User: Fold this.
Amino acid sequence: MNPVTRLALVIGGTALVASAAAQTTYPEKAIRLLIGYPPGSQTDVIARVFGQKLSEFLGKPVVTDNAAGAAGTIAADRTAKAVPDGYTLGYLAQGALVINPSLSKLGYEAVKDFSPVSQITVSSNVLVVHNAVAAKSVKELVALAKAQPGVLTYASGGSGSAPHLAGEFFKSMAGVDVRHIPYKGVVAAIPDLIGERVSMMFGATAVVMPLAREGKLRALAVTALRRSPALADLPTVAESGYPGFEVSSWNGLFAPARTPAPIVQRLHGETVKILAHADLRARLGDFGLESIGNSPDEFAAVIKFEVPKWAKVIKEAGINSE
Assistant:
């Protein structure tokens, strides 16, 4: 056996031993879970519930860390650049991975800098307006916006977030001039929306619907292609005169690229068990969320599909970073 072959076998054998060791001993200490949105946001609430369950299943603390700002890209960047040992994970949203890269230059690439573990949830948003807006339907809102070009405003959780994308799609399809007002998370926009300092928003169901039910906001439509079973009386934007309008958003669990496969598989297995719990599924349903739990390979395929898809959509819609 020549020296090169012998060295390759030694290296390969060492890697296999290290991989097996990682599978049998992980985790040995606390895990840090980065969340891209501020405390109180829908993503934060679900991530904390998920983190608590993950801690119970792994037998080690899972410490949640809100790295909010820039539509989730701060948390994504820190996840991508963390040591790939399974002790820093990211609970990251669609915007940070597949939308924002088409809006601005980032320090990471979704396809090559992450090890996807599993999609956790998927959801649509709800179009809401404050009570002083004289519109009780999407049709009336469009008529109002056309009568007052540049006067109405819409809030989002930051440039590149799903609510921002929904707002720009709406503007493009309806042919209206509505100004974008980005905030550091959707929750941060709520006081200004209720206080009538911003006209409307495409917000997460769990954030805006309780306020709508209390009469503090008015819900007009959902952004899915089909009506939500939990909001059966609320029409979709598509059926309100804009066929094909659909903006959904997902969240998922990620590790840095090059995290050992046994660790990723262990995390995926525990994620599937967590999402199978009836109490958690019921809670997700209360938030208008659908649980996913797909495999790392399936999740990677979603990302590879969505990166060019959203790049094309953003270009065609003329959406610019702000």
